TrEMBL record, chain A:
GO cellular component terms attached to this protein's record: pyruvate dehydrogenase complex
First and last residue of the signal peptide: none
Coiled coil segments of this chain: none
InterPro entries for the chain: 2-oxoA_DH_lipoyl-BS (IPR003016), AB_hydrolase_1 (IPR000073), AB_hydrolase_fold (IPR029058), Biotin_lipoyl (IPR000089), E2/Pdx1 (IPR045257), E3-bd_dom_sf (IPR036625), PSBD (IPR004167), Single_hybrid_motif (IPR011053)
Molecular-function annotations in GO: dihydrolipoyllysine-residue acetyltransferase activity
Compositional bias annotation for Basic and acidic residues: 93-102
Lipoyl-binding domain sequence ranges: 1-71
The protein's name in its UniProt record: AcoC_1 protein
EC nos: 2.3.1.12
SUPFAM superfamilies listed in its UniProt record: alpha/beta-Hydrolases, Peripheral subunit-binding domain of 2-oxo acid dehydrogenase complex, Single hybrid motif
BP GO annotations: pyruvate decarboxylation to acetyl-CoA
Organism this protein belongs to: Jannaschia aquimarina
Family named by the database record: Belongs to the 2-oxoacid dehydrogenase family.
TrEMBL record, chain B:
Signal peptide: none
Cofactor(s) in the UniProt record: thiamine diphosphate
Superkingdom field: Bacteria
Keywords: Oxidoreductase, Thiamine pyrophosphate
Single GO MF annotation: branched-chain 2-oxo acid dehydrogenase activity
Stretches assigned to the Transketolase-like pyrimidine-binding domain: 12-187
Name of this protein: BfmBAB_1 protein
Gene: bfmBAB_1
Top-level EC class as recorded in UniProt: oxidoreductase
Assigned EC number: 1.2.4.4
Length: 425, 336
């Protein structure tokens, strides 16, 4: 199971393209994996014949586990190698098939289930696209949610009701990950950067733990936000301010990365009483320079080959960017409207490879505790922009990180964030 | 541009608004000519051209022989060689007779000649059922022409839009097909005075709501608004989008609304199968708005039959307010 996404711990096999005993050539599609972002085709790493399929369609498997074996010509096919049982993911698969194959015997019929029951299992719960999305976002299993729609269909409101019920229970997490807390302080509000989306906060959220509720805002033209690009930076800020106001928070800790950092700073400037602390990660808006070629390259890329060199620029250690990750990013950019909106945003916000908005004055004005986190090997925005910050702003500059500290070193960023929020490490 | 504050408006009917647009165009632009059967002294099959022949003379308001193919051919040729003809069909059904000129010539010439020539022709089609004119005079063929790249196809639904879209069509360098529902000709509304244009590629939200998106075209916009008004009495706020343009379709306005409501009802008078509703449904299903859908998409369209002559059957063959009301309510309350 290859790692196709930076914050991926396991993957679900959506479909096998090859069955037991079939021959494949190098590069042939072997199987599809489903991640939160996209469905990805995994190619055969070499020539051979497929045997011992250990993970079937719908199975969730930890990264690095064997899912099947390729035998080269002449090689004798024996028993499945010892210890080859794939490490199953912690979650029940919620895929269409919804069945978990727990034995390691290749090609074995499922235990005969009564026909009706079997059909029910294979069809999975009946749910609307909205309900599926809300359940995915809330980390709820559709099979646990009663559907009140026609023929028992789970509708959006059913999931919202389940989310409310879960919130009401407020049972402490039996396995507190990272920093546990009473969740009583102001929540965090996270704003991602240009060409990214809310999911990019995954590693930081994991490292930060459950100490505070977390809200993530998405920039227009990104993730699941509107595809209508803002006319200019101030229109972008107004749009995000509406999103922020809709959260109805009296107080929050505001965190922004890159363009999201510039937006966060502008929001803190106009909603100063509600922002308890401000954390800017490699923020835009503090100087004119930006790597326009990298932005242009990522916006234009239509192939993994042309996307990879630019993605590698985002991080200090280019080896972190795997080929499968590049393909996953490319698949995530298949929405034509998204690409179009982002292109138009780049044309106005970063015209001619220049940051066309200046928030240095805002940084001089904001009075809440403010922290700038930056990697000295940032290849997109020069870290030295941080040096224009006034004295009361804390600077945390890392020698061995690039433009994505929250992904490259989530633990370190989470520690700083915890300090800003006032949680014990 | 819609009627902005400070712009003087006058109440007129949909037909009068079209006549006003043609009067302005004939007065301002000597390249503009009107062509059609009985549009001169008789004033047009639906009295849309009215007295324009008296004001602008028979050289500018030209009666053509009873040959739709001939009339369309002359209009296309005149457009290619410098005039701005507006060709009126007596009934949109007769577009079938002129398909060669519309589909193979008007829509293609710019492409075939590498952009050296454009065809700025405007064709007006009285369309739709409800007048007891039976099967050969009551069809809604806008999706037929909407299927042809190279054409723009619009369905104005208010007097204001009818005037603004006709003037915009005359400004457009390419062929524009305007479908006017016959029952709308007598509809009255406030219309800005003088010249203004209405975009040919933008849908418009006629009523805002959050419970269900109703995308309607042509006369169905008015029926949908009526249904939405009744729904509001039950506390259900439907959002009604007037499609206005069949080609190009304004994707973003529709997707934006579906992302808000999660429910989509398409209402159109043309035969349901292979129609505008299929296109809009597929467009939504293919887009990111899919993940916001909270119910199956529903289409209400015309019955799979020729429009009947019998008045009761004629009504039954196209969606009515009660049909829209039932479908929208079932969608909005999670019963679909």
């Amino acid at each position: 199971m290859p790692k196709v996404d930076m914050d991926m711990a396991e993957g679900t096999i959506a479909k096998w393209h090859v069955s037991e005993g079939e021959k494949v050539a190098r590069g042939d599609p072997l199987f599809d994996i489903e991640t939160d972002k996209a469905a990805m085709e995994v190619e055969a790493p070499g020539e051979g014949t497929l045997h011992h399929v250990l993970a079937g369609e719908g199975d969730t498997v930890a990264i690095g586990s064997a899912v099947a074996f390729l035998y080269s010509e002449g090689e004798e096919v024996g028993d499945p190698p010892a210890g080859a049982k794939p490490a199953m993911g912690s979650e029940e698969p919620t895929g269409r098939r919804g069945e978990t194959r727990s034995d390691t015997q290749p090609v074995q019929e499922e235990p005969a289930a009564p026909p009706d029951e079997k059909r029910k299992i294979e069809a999975g719960p009946r749910a609307t696209p909205l309900a599926r999305r809300l359940a995915r976002e809330a980390d709820l299993r559709l099979s646990d949610i009663p559907g009140t729609g026609p023929r028992g269909r789970i509708q959006g409101e059913d999931v919202r009701e389940a989310v409310r019920a879960t919130d009401m229970r407020a049972s402490p997490d039996p396995e507190p990950k990272g920093r546990a807390g009473a969740q009583t302080g102001p929540p965090l509000v996270l704003i991602h950067g240009f060409l990214s989306d809310a999911q990019s906060w995954g590693p930081l959220e994991k490292a930060f733990g459950s100490g505070r509720p977390i809200h993530k805002l998405e920039l227009p033209g990104h993730g699941r936000a509107t595809r209508k690009p803002p006319a200019d930076f101030s229109a972008l800020v107004s749009h995000m301010r509406r999103g922020l106001d809709e959260l109805n928070l009296e107080a929050m800790h505001l965190v922004g990365h890159s363009l999201g950092g510039a937006v966060a700073l502008a929001l803190a400037d106009t909603r100063p009483r509600r922002v308890a602390s401000l954390t800017l990660i490699a923020p835009a808006g503090l100087g004119p320079q930006i790597d326009g070629a990298a932005l242009d390259g990522m916006l234009r890329a239509t192939r993994a080959e042309s996307l990879a060199p630019w993605l590698k620029r985002l991080v200090a250690d280019p080896d972190r960017i795997s080929w499968n990750y590049v393909q996953a990013v490319l698949a995530g950019r298949s929405d034509e409207d998204l690409r179009d909106a982002q292109r138009r945003m780049a044309e106005t916000l970063f015209a001619d490879g220049t940051q066309c908005f200046d928030l240095q004055a805002a940084l001089g004005r904001v009075e809440m505790p403010t922290r700038i986190i930056w990697g000295r090997r940032d290849g997109i925005i020069p870290w030295s922009h941080a040096l224009s910050a006034p004295g009361r702003v804390s600077l945390n500059l890392f020698d061995d990180l690039g433009h994505m500290p929250q992904i490259e070193a989530p633990e370190a960023v989470a520690d700083l964030l915890a300090a800003s929020v006032g949680l014990a490490p | 541009m819609n009627a902005a504050a400070g712009v003087r408006t006058r109440e007129m009917s949909y037909a009068e608004a079209i006549r006003d647009a043609m009067d302005i165009a004939l007065t301002e632009d000597e390249r503009v000519v009107l062509m059609g059967e009985d549009i001169g002294v008789y004033g047009g099959a639906f009295q849309v051209t009215g007295d324009l022949v008296e004001r602008h003379g028979p050289d500018r308001v030209i009666d053509t022989p009873i040959s739709e193919l001939g009339g369309a051919g002359v209009a296309v040729g005149a457009a290619m060689t410098g005039l701005r003809p507006i060709l009126e069909f007596q009934f949109s059904d007769f577009a079938t007779l002129a398909m060669e000129q519309i589909v193979n010539q008007a829509a293609k010439v710019r492409y075939m000649l590498g952009g050296a020539v454009s065809v700025p022709v405007v064709m007006r089609f009285p369309a739709g059922s409800g007048t007891g004119a039976a099967a050969q005079h009551s069809q809604s063929l806008e999706a037929w022409l909407g299927h042809v790249p190279g054409l723009k196809v619009v369905q104005p639904t208010t007097p204001e839009d009818a005037k603004g879209m006709l003037l915009a069509a005359l400004d457009d360098p390419d062929p524009v097909m305007i479908f006017e529902h016959k029952l709308l000709y007598k509809l009255k509304g406030q219309v800005p005075e003088g010249r203004y244009t209405t975009p040919l590629d933008k849908a418009v939200v006629r009523r805002a709501g959050d419970a269900v998106t109703v995308v309607a075209s042509g006369i169905m916009v008015h029926k949908a608004l009526e249904a939405a008004g009744q729904l509001a009495e039950d506390g259900i706020e439907a959002e009604v989008i007037d499609l206005r343009s069949v080609r190009p379709i304004d994707r973003e306005t529709i997707l934006e609304s579906v992302r808000k409501t999660g429910r989509l009802l398409c209402v159109y008078e043309a035969v349901k199968t292979l129609g505008i509703g299929a296109e809009i449904s597929a467009m939504v299903a293919e887009s990111d708005a899919f993940d916001f859908l909270d119910a199956p998409i529903v289409r209400l369209g015309g019955a799979e039959c020729p429009i009947p002559y019998n008045p009761d059957l004629e009504k039954a063959a196209v969606p009515q307010i009660a049909d829209i009301l039932d479908a929208a309510r079932a969608l909005a309350t999670g019963r679909r």
